[in-house]
Every structure is written in C-alpha cells, then in structure tokens.
C-alpha cells in the first residue's frame, strides 16, 4: 500500500544539457488534487526526447526527467479525480485535452489552450514538482515524464485504455505512431490516388507512411539520408525511397522532376528548418500541402518567397497527429487490438530500463526505429 506516501524509485535523470541519462533513486510525491500517480510499465524513446537532451525545446529546465511515450498503471489518485482509479491502464498525453477551453471545444484542433498557455512549463498546475533527487527539485517533460518507475501526471494529461490491452508495444500510441499516422489522416487529409513524400523515416515518418497508405495514396516517396531505413519504409507502404545524398542537385528539384511538378502532400518528420523549406518547395503549385511534424530548435526560423503560397500551396503542422487525445487514444488502441494497423514493425529494439543510454545510442546512430524500455 503506497497511496499517500512518497515513493522512492529509479528514474533516468538528465542533470544538464547534453549529458547522458543518470539512473538515480528519486522521491515521487503523492498526487495532489486532479493528479494521478502512475507506475510505468513501458516507455519508448522518441526523437523529441533526444532533441530535449540537446536543449532544443523552448522553456525547458534542468534537471529534468524526460520521456513522453509510455504506458502504465494507475497506482493512486489525488482528490477530485473522476476518470481514473488505481489499477487502470493509462497512456500519458504529452498533448493534453482539458475538454473545457476554446480549442478543446473546437473540432478543428487538438491543441489544448489550458495545457499550452496556462500551465507552468515543467511543473504541475500548482507550480510545484512531484520529483526530487538528492534534495533537488526535478522538472517534468511535456506534462508526462515517463523515464521513471513512477510519475505524477495531471488528469488532463492521461487517458484510460481498455483493461484487456496488451501493453508490450502500445506506448507507441502515446506519441510516434499516432503523431505520424494522424499527420496524414487528420492534418493533411490525404486523399485516395494522391502522391505523398515523407521526409525522415524514423518512427514518426514511418507512421506517416502508414497513414498515407491507409488513406489510399498511390505514390508514397520516402526521403532519408540513411538508406538503412528504406527496407522497412517499403514494407510499410513507401512505393519508392530517395536518398538526397545520391544527387548533386537539391532534393526538392529531384522530387519536382520525378513527380511532374511536385507532390500533393509532403511531410517533414525530421525537425530541420532546411528540410522544411525543401518540403514546401517539393509540393505542387495550386494544391500541394506541406505538414510540419518535426520539431525545430527553439530559435530557428524559416524564410520563403511569398509566391510559393500566392500560387496556392498550403503549409500546416500538427502536434500528436491532430488527434484529440482523450477521445482518440482509446479508439486507436482498440483499432490496434483489432489489427486495423500494425505498429509492431516500428519496434526494433527492447531493453531493460537501466539500458536507456544504449537505447539512445541506437537512435543517434540510426540503427533503431523505436526502442521500448521495460521497467
Ligand atoms: P528519428 O531520429 O527516429 O528520425 C529522424 C529521421 O530523419 C532519421 O531516419 C534520419 O536519418 C532522418 N534525417 C535526418 N536528417 C535528414 C535530412 N537532412 N534529410 C533526410 N532525412 C534526414 O526521430 P523520430 O522519428 O522519433 O522523430 C522525428 C521528428 O518528429 C523529431 O523532430 C521529433 O522531435 C518530431 C516529433 C514531433 C511530434 C509532434 O507531435 N509533432 C511528436 N513526436 C516527435
Ligand atoms: Zn514524441
């Protein structure tokens, strides 16, 4: 019986920017009002966690417990919590849904204003942290922090899933799979027979490939500088793959030439401003749509010739694939259990939690798509 007590457990703490993860014993305080404490079962490693290690995110503070793609079981709940009870299987939501704000009530978006504007970054709603280590306050990451045996999350930033769900690979619904898949289905609204290009064939980009295929695109071009990604991309639906390094002209020129003027839909799943511009310039005038999915570094900007848009191209972007998470995650979990899509192929490595640095090594060397850490 741990409810109401401070739990001491293992967590991977990032003490400062560019440092390896350090497995520490941390104290996790009990959940306060409208919070739940979760015993993590699995967590995935996403490109965004790696970006955070290098300090790419705005408003993030160290020391921090990273990780946002996970699945766990509710250990205890704070006062006033209605939707959860101990024992529930839950997926943390790095893009929460309060259900009350203007955006949550608007079907056009999944960006929750409460979470985005009104909550302190890296801390709970009351401005305090539930994590301490060696006497120091530890910040949370994107409302979630999954690189710890126990985490405390606001009730708007978690969702209950079916109690019969097999948990092994389901953490991918918490970010990578849903983000990529939804960018094709919700953000771009890819139509049957269309042409698509996906820049970056990591977990997010490959899920975008899966989404384009599910939407009935007839041509799906994978673009990556690591040709080791091409085999799986083709297995998941890419009709062809292109390595920009194989050409001595810009990749946008290659794509425009090979598609008779450009693509219907282009997805940037890398997080680099140069490839974002290349993606926009690969889209067809008159109707081409580009979706920014990759997260660029905090102070980076892009510039472009306004004629690109005057002539009818669209630039958009999406967080968590545009899914309203409380509504959509249980359905995605259901569809996965019904085998409506196969995200298992995105999981290339499984490691015990302590080997988190090894998992990040595989990501950085381009050897893994998703590594799942088990607690
Ligand atoms: P991962 O590192 O697995 O994939 C990136 C891929 O891009 C790799 O295959 C690289 O080889 C490839 N790449 C790198 N540079 C280039 C280049 N110049 N040209 C072509 N290919 C290149 O990362 P991931 O798939 O986990 O994440 C990808 C991005 O998505 C990253 O920026 C992450 O922060 C972002 C993201 C966004 C969201 C969201 O809600 N919008 C959620 N999660 C992650
Ligand atoms: Zn992510």
Automatic annotation (TrEMBL):
Pfam family, one: ADH_zinc_N
Keywords: Acetylation, Cytoplasm, Metal-binding, NAD, Oxidoreductase, Zinc
EC nos: 1.1.1.1
Single Gene Ontology MF annotation: all-trans-retinol dehydrogenase (NAD+) activity
SUPFAM superfamilies per the UniProt record, alphabetical: GroES-like, NAD(P)-binding Rossmann-fold domains
Organism: Pelobates cultripes (Western spadefoot toad)
Protein's UniProt name: Alcohol dehydrogenase 6
Domain Alcohol dehydrogenase-like N-terminal: 33-161
């Amino acid at each position: 019986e741990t409810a109401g007590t401070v739990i001491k457990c293992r967590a991977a703490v990032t003490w400062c920017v560019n440092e390896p993860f350090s497995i520490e014993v941390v104290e996790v305080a009990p959940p306060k009002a409208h919070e739940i404490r979760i015993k993590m079962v699995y967590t995935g490693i996403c490109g965004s966690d790696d970006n955070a290690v290098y300090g790419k995110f705005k408003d993030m503070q160290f020391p921090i417990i990273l990780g946002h793609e996970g699945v766990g079981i509710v250990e205890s709940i704070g006062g006033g919590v209605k939707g959860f009870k101990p024992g529930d299987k839950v997926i943390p939501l790095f893009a929460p849904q309060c259900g009350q704000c203007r955006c949550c009530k608007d079907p056009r978006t999944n960006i929750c204003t409460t979470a985005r504007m009104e909550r302190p970054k890296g801390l709970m709603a009351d401005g305090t942290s539930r994590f301490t280590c060696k006497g120091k306050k530890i910040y949370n990451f994107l409302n979630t922090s999954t690189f710890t045996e126990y985490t405390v999350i606001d009730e708007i930033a978690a969702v209950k899933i079916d109690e019969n769900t097999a948990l092994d690979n389901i953490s991918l619904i918490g970010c990578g799979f849903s983000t990529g898949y939804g960018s094709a289905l919700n953000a771009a609204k890819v139509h049957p027979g269309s042409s698509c290009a996906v820049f970056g064939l990591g977990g997010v980009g490959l899920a975008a490939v899966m989404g384009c295929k599910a939407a009935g695109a007839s041509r799906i071009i994978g673009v990556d500088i690591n040709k080791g990604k091409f085999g799986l991309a083709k297995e998941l639906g890419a009709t062809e793959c292109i390595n920009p390094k194989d050409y001595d002209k810009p990749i946008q020129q290659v794509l425009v030439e090979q598609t008779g003027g450009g693509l219907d839909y282009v997805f940037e799943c890398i997080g680099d401003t140069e490839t974002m511009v290349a993606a926009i310039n690969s889209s067809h005038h008159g109707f081409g749509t580009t979706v920014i999915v990759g997260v660029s570094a905090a102070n980076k900007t892009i510039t472009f010739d306004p004629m690109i848009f005057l002539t009818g191209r669209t630039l958009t972007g999406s967080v968590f694939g545009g899914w309203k998470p409380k509504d959509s995650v249980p359905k995605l979990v259901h569809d996965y259990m019904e085998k409506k899509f196969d995200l298992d192929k995105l999981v290339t490595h499984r490691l015990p939690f302590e080997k988190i640095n090894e998992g990040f090594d595989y990501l950085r060397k381009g050897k893994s798509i998703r590594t799942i850490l088990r607690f």
